[in-house]
Amino acid sequence: MNKILVVGIGPGEYEQMTIRAAKALKDCDVIVGYTVYVDLVREHFADKEFLTTPMRKEAERCVLAFQEAAKGKTVAMICSGDAGVYGMSGLMLEIGREYPETKVEVIPGVTAALSGAAVLGAPLIHDFCLISLSDLLTPWEKIEKRLLLASEADFVICLYNPSSKKRRDYLQKACDLMLRYKSPETVCGMVMNIGREGEQMQLMTLRELRETAVDMFTTVFVGNCQTMEIEGRMVTPRGYRYE
C-alpha cells in the first residue's frame, strides 16, 4: 500500500523537532509542503525531493502528495507545529477518501502553544484554549463568540494568527472583547519567531497588549485571573484551591 506521512515539524528549528518526526523525514522519498516550511527543513534533508505550493493552495498540495505516493514513493507532508492543530492532517484524511490505495499516517509535532509557553515560563498549567484570529476559514462572528465565552469562563487563552497585513486591528478587537470579562491587569505574554532566528518574548498586561503591534509570526498568551509574573516569567498556578 502507498504511504503518506503527515508530519508536524515543530516551531522550525531542527533541534526542536521530535525524534519521530525527524525519522519520518529521513526515511521518506519526497517532502511536500508550504514553501516557507520546506525552507526550514531543506538543509537537514538535502537528499530528498522537495515539492512546494504557496499559501492558500492547501488542497492542491494534498492532491500533489497523493499523486507522488501513487508512484510508489513514501511522501512526507510537512506542517509547522503539530499536523493536527491548524495543520494539514484533517484535509489529508478528507481528500484521502479519493485515494483508498494510500495509507495516511499522522506524526505529531510541538505546536506553538507549547513551544511558546516554554519560552514564557508556565502559562498553560491550568485549563486553556487555542483560538485563531484568522477569519480566512472561520467567520469573525464565530471567533468573537469564542473569545467572549472563553474569557467569561476564565480560560487562559492562546491566540494564533493575531495579525496580518489585512488584519492589523484584529488583536485590538480581540482584546476589547476579552476585556469585557478579564481585568485590564491580566498578565499576558507573547513570543515572536518561536524556535527560529530572532526569537523574542515579552510580558505585559492585557491593557498594554491591546496597544501592542504584532505580526503573523507572533503567538499571544492571555492569562486567567490567577496568572502572575514571577521574576520575568509568566506563570499560571495549577488550580484555584487557594483563592
Summarize the structure.
This protein has 243 residues and is α/β, with parallel strands linked by helices.
Write the layout of secondary structure elements.
Blueprint: E1 2-8, H1 19-27, E2 30-34, H2 35-41, E3 49-53, H3 58-69, E4 74-79, H4 89-95, E5 102-107, H5 112-120, E6 121-122, E7 128-132, H6 140-152, E8 156-160, H7 170-178, E9 187-192, E10 200-205, H8 206-210, E11 218-222, E12 228-230, E13 233-235
Which key terms come to mind for this protein?
single chain, 243 residues, alpha/beta, Cobalt-precorrin-4 Transmethylase, domain 1, Methyltransferase, Cobalt-precorrin-4 Transmethylase, Domain 2, 2 domains, five-stranded parallel beta sheet, five-stranded mixed beta sheet, 8 helices, 13 strands, elongated
Task: Please characterize this protein's 3D structure.
The protein has 243 residues and is of the alpha/beta class. It has 2 domains: 2-110, Tetrapyrrole methylase, N-terminal domain (Cobalt-precorrin-4 Transmethylase, domain 1); 113-235, Methyltransferase, Cobalt-precorrin-4 Transmethylase, Domain 2 (2-Layer Sandwich). Helices cover 29% and strands 26% of the residues. The chain is built from 8 helices and 13 strands. Strands 3-2-4-1-5 form a 5-stranded parallel beta sheet, with helices on both faces. Strands 7-8-11-9-10 form a 5-stranded mixed beta sheet, sandwiched between helices. A hairpin with a 7-residue loop joins strand 9 and strand 10. The longest helix has 13 residues, at 140-152. The protein starts with a strand and ends in an 8-residue tail after the last strand.
